[in-house]
């Protein structure tokens, strides 16, 4: 299979084709599976019954159960990290460029697992399986809405650890993730120092959330809370706050981008070539129109309350003294133009980890795409990841 | 007076006092005056009748009318750039640290003028005088609301030029401003190349707005547009969208700040020491609570529609080929941690200006206060401004 894929790829490149299902990194069939726990008690002491999360695996678990890499997902993402469900899928998983046969996270060597978080925001996406405010509370038969317990990042990590136990995993060669995924990777390292060999912390905050981002997460979800249809979270079965969700996703996008990206992608183009923005208060620029439309489209599969719960989970991140328990080698990969978690935060965290005797490496994704360079351009540091996994 | 002030300042420093009215930079009495034009026709071709803007002056105009520096204000500011109206005022004008007797913009030498913009947002502040959407349309006897014409940055500049003509100004030694004020300074240079000797462009975009900021300005005013009380701008005499305005000002503040500022000012403190944010979705962090309260307080004197008009004026900025007309020497002063107009934008503009034969200098305000370092910490480059004015 490996040799055949390479041959086909060469043909594809030669023919000048750039989009074909066979060119995706992970070539096997990707299947969304479900992991269930009868109950889970949060770090805050609240018990949630009938917990379900979706997961995907790429590659094969070895007999020792020690060739495993876990991929944790970011705020608006899910566990679809690589490959395609069907050959005709429009795009592969978000980190397909670095996960697959022969790629830096090599599925010929590693058994790669990714799982949906608790309170994942994509509740209406059929390929996301999660337990959160949109789930039915077995005690009432109705959606939890804002009565769902607060869930911290490590609550998802605890559930994902139970998943890995069920699969027979005995060693994690690495936990890797971008943004919110990088936070979970740190939680894994602090919670399970004997299990986790390496952490790949891509576009992350280091060992605690930045207070600036605590406030930015408040701003991200503000349009939801201002939408009268949000109704303090009580909207299930009614008209949902889709406008607020769309505008919230718009803010997520622009704050996760940067000046160069905006200039290259949209420049000063008008939304409508016949409507000069100088002529009327209602006439806008292309970037405004495009991000409004993208937010609205994405908003259709996104749950408003879950965006608020996911913001809270990020806001609560901070390892404190638990950092001292961590043993994993850490590779920090900030993006040069990231304004959410600027490279300075990773540099400072790397110094702090070295000061306590830890092994910390740092490489930067150079670019002008902002925070999202850690998702779309992670392959720029793919070889650094490959080398780090071999150390 | 100059000698006496210095002596008193020395005493103040010696006594360890940090707040006293006599320590303000401009020592003379500051008075808000009104400049009126019977009518003004915008660059978009719309005529506004009964135009009024407030202004302040510091220092004395010489006989030749050529010792003048104009200070243009930023998005949420007004013409109160220096001094105090009354000795008991809580704070002096925003750039008092660099404007005054013996200060870099020395009122013993220069006649300094600052004026309120059209559509200034502070309509309910008695020290702001402006003409904008909250003004009465003489044709209807009612507030313009969203029928007020689109006003560009250069519309305010045209009105301010008429003000300076009325005062007998024949030469501008400099036009200086922060952020939106820096944009107006560029407009002055392009519109009146024979009049303007120097431009001090503090925390500015260069010669055109960044598309990233076009979108951020959209985000700034989003909470207003989402507030049902905004009612498409028709709220005068009714309940006003004060919640939307307060939340909008909150977004302005956090996006105009930076990571270091948030960490030093708030850290990870909880809004209420008895309410752990991990315990409940409603419990928040100190930074959230403080910015909510500051926005709400400031929102009481701020007009919702004017924030939208001011955002539009910023979005429309771009000199295009008119840059070639500019002759003024330019001093660029970006702030190192500014994420609205990062230093890279000023560096690029300086190179572009030099490439067309212009004189461009650049110094950076080092700090972690973000964009607002150009307002609160401009004195860090006060001596660079003093030296530039002497060249």
Brief account:
The model of chain A is unreliable at 1-24 (pLDDT under 50). Chain A starts with a helix and ends with a helix. Chain A is an alpha/beta fold and 391 residues long.
Core attributes:
alpha/beta, 11 helices, Rna Polymerase Sigma Factor, Chain: A, eight-stranded mixed sheet, homodimer
Question: Could you walk me through the main structural features you see in this protein, from its secondary elements to its overall organization?
Answer:
Two copies of one chain form a homodimer. In chain A, helix 2 crosses helix 3, helix 4 packs antiparallel against helix 5 and helix 5 crosses helix 7. Helices cover 33% and strands 15% of the residues of chain A. In chain A, strand 7 and strand 8 form a beta hairpin. The N terminus of chain A is likely disordered. The relative contact order of chain A is 0.13. An eight-stranded mixed beta sheet of chain A has the order 1-2-6-3-9-10-11-12, sandwiched between helices. A two-stranded parallel sheet of chain A has the order 4-5. In chain A, strands 7-8 form a two-stranded antiparallel ribbon. The radius of gyration of chain A is 21 Å and the shape is globular. By secondary structure, the first copy, chain A, is an alpha/beta fold. At the A-B interface, helix 4, helix 5, helix 6, helix 7 and helix 8 of A face helix 4, helix 5, helix 6, helix 7 and helix 8 of B.
């Amino acid at each position: 299979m490996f040799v055949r894929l390479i041959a086909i790829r060469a043909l594809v490149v030669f023919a000048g084709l750039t989009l074909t299902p066979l060119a995706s990194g992970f070539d096997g069939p990707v299947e969304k599976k479900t992991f269930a726990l009868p109950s889970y008690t949060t770090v805050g002491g609240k018990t949630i019954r009938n917990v379900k999360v979706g997961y995907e695996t790429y590659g094969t678990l070895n007999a020792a159960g020690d060739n495993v890499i876990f991929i944790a997902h970011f705020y608006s993402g899910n566990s679809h990290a690589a490959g395609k469900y069907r050959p005709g899928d429009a795009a592969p998983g978000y980190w397909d460029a670095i996960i697959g046969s022969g790629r830096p996270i090599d599925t010929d060597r590693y058994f790669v697992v990714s799982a949906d978080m608790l309170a994942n925001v994509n509740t209406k996406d059929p390929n996301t399986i999660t337990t959160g405010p949109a789930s039915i509370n077995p005690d009432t038969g109705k959606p939890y809405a804002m009565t769902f317990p607060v869930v911290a990042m490590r609550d998802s990590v605890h559930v994902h650890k139970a998943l890995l136990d069920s699969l027979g995993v005995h060693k994690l060669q690495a936990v890797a993730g971008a943004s919110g995924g990088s936070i979970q990777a740190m939680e894994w390292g602090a919670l399970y120092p004997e299990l986790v060999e390496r952490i790949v912390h891509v576009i992350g905050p280091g060992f605690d959330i930045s207070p600036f981002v605590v406030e930015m997460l408040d701003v991200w979800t503000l349009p939801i809370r201002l939408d009268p249809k949000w109704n303090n979270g009580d909207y299930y079965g009614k008209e949902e706050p889709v406008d607020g969700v769309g505008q919230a996703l718009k803010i997520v996008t622009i704050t996760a981008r940067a000046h160069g990206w905006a200039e290259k992608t949209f420049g000063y183009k008008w939304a409508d070539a016949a409507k000069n923005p100088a002529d009327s208060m209602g006439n806008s620029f292309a970037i405004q129109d495009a991000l409004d439309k993208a937010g609205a489209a994405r908003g259709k599969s996104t749950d408003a309350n879950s965006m608020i719960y996911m913001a809270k989970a990020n806001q609560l991140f901070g390892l404190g003294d638990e950092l001292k328990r961590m043993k994993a080698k850490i590779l920090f990969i900030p993006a040069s133009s990231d304004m959410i978690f600027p490279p300075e935060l990773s540099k400072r965290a790397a110094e702090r980890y070295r000061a306590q005797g830890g092994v910390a490496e740092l490489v930067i994704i150079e670019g002008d795409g902002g925070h999202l360079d850690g998702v779309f351009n992670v392959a720029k540091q793919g070889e650094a990841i490959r080398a780090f996994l071999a150390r």
